[in-house]
Amino acid sequence: MSETYGSALRKAIARLSAAGLDEARAEAKFLLLGACDMSSSDLILNEGEPIPVESAARFEDFLQRRLRHAPVSLILGVTDFMGLSFLTDERALAPRSDSERLVEAALERAPQMAGKVVDLGTGSGCLLQSFLHERQTWTGTALDLSPDALSLAKENAARLKLEDRITFLQGSWATAANAIAEADIVISNPPYIRTEVLDELDPEVREHDPMLALDGGADGLIAYRDIVSLCSVKMTPGAWLLFEIGFDQAEEVSTIVSGHSFAELSRLKDYSGHNRVVLARKL
Ligand code: GLN
To answer: Cα 42 to chain center, whole Å?
Structure first.
């Protein structure tokens, strides 16, 4: 009797747990669903059925990659973010669920009428594109220094049928100066990890996410200083600036923002209870 979906899943959970992976159960399930191209409810209905040979082989390949610390999002090649599916590969930072808080906060400040949003360091495009998906009359500008990241963001925009509403720009922050001047909302999840702790990150992050998307310089704050300086001279009064921040950076990033012409400075927590967003309104 060949292996069933259920027994394949149980064995996989045991292997991932034995390797010390904390989320063994959830990860094994996601990898099995991806390998077999099935939904959770398909799995419940078919748990006792034999798993096809090709699916079993693909599942084994996925498990071996996970045991070598490839992140699940890269193995599957897609990540769910704000209920949308984003292509995920080594061209850009993998979307994190913590970043959904930033998009929700931006949407709360975006009335339904037409508007313009700028995303500084768009990466995969998940922030800007999930925002635009919810605001059909808005247009956006996606800036990134990395041509690789932009190529991935363009593929994601095409999948979500958003490419007509996004202007893609390659270059440093100042390349977006004109777009920033016209924006109602500027969002950014810039690189914010201190250079000296990059070596201590989990291998899933250190070996798979681009350093350009992580390295925030000696104190992790270089991008915030540069973006705030640029936005404080370019942004229109009343427009919002929203940053994702590292869990311990709320104080420092708030200090940077409050040194410039912004009001209504506040911070928001993610669902793990960490400060994750700092936002303010241009005076
Ligand atoms: N949130 C990412 C991490 O935990 C860092 C992303 C960034 O530097 N913007 O690795």
So the answer is: 28
